[in-house]
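Quick illustration, no need to memorize.
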Amino acid sequence: MLKKRSHTCLIATTMATVFLLMMVLYGTINTQQPDSSSLRHDYQLLGRPLYKLDLAWPKYPELFTGEVFGVAVDQHAGVVYVAQRGDNVPKVLVFTTDGDFLMAWNTTTLEMPHGIFVADAASTSPTVWITDVGNGPYGHCIKQYSPSGKLLQVLGTPGKAGSGFNPLEFDQPAEIFVHSSGEIYIVDGDGGMNNRLIKLSKEQEVVWMHGEKGQGMAQFYIPHSVTVDNFLRVWVADRGNKRIQVFNSVTGDWLGTWGSCFTEDAPYSVRLTPDGKYFVVVQLNTNQISLLDAPPVGVIGQCRVVSVIQLADDVKPHLVDLDLKTGALYVAEIGAQQAQKFTPFSLGGSFL
């Protein structure tokens, strides 16, 4: 009888442990409505779990003092740049991928950062590009900085909103993506007069452009994020139209549209995982980060969601970036005023 009771207790303990682990894995332990101090811990995983929250990153979250709009990773240097807005706050915070704080940029040349991107990360001289949507004397342009925050060059006409190409003008440029070839892709239209996708050559000359506002093919309403996949297809989060549009990066030809996954909320950010298998898409108003199957070459088809990170109410995820070495996902969150790191569940903690 004693052996039977001990065996029964052992089974009950084991089942309880397994149940507890499942609750931790799917983020369902905390069922209370989050306040501002618990936002960074409250999330759920839906579908196939591919990422888990790194609670230890960064080591000093109190350094976030403004609205966090963008994040960019230099995977070779192991550095993460976080762009934030607000009065009397540093516009860029720099952390290591392990969460240590390195420095802050207190630059006066940056008014209202929106998108941020690290170019030439594999080289010995990477640079940081930031789109500035401010309305003051330094706004409506895109700026290139050194890793320490020194202004190197400016694309566009500072302080002047416009649509011209000679000289180059922008109106609230949302995001920039610099390909390893040096070619530049810009979505210009975070609510201003422009709704444009522009490709610049390595010499920063216009190669092709789509710039008509509307709901038709190759038309945009608030193009908000852009990325290029391994098959040289350009993917644009067409926020106002609740869809992603796809283009040939060489010719600019329209290739297809994804809209069926975004009936509830628009895509705000789009990035590709380093293994090329999934697109990471953010939906700000529903507080979701979705992973979608990336189609093979020659096929666009319809979008298919395989995994969702459901964040707490009012977190408001805005733009994301990925560490191309480890697969780690970094998310800029306006409502929670923070950036968070999610690491892959796959073997070795990486998609590679």
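The longest helix spans residues 2-25.
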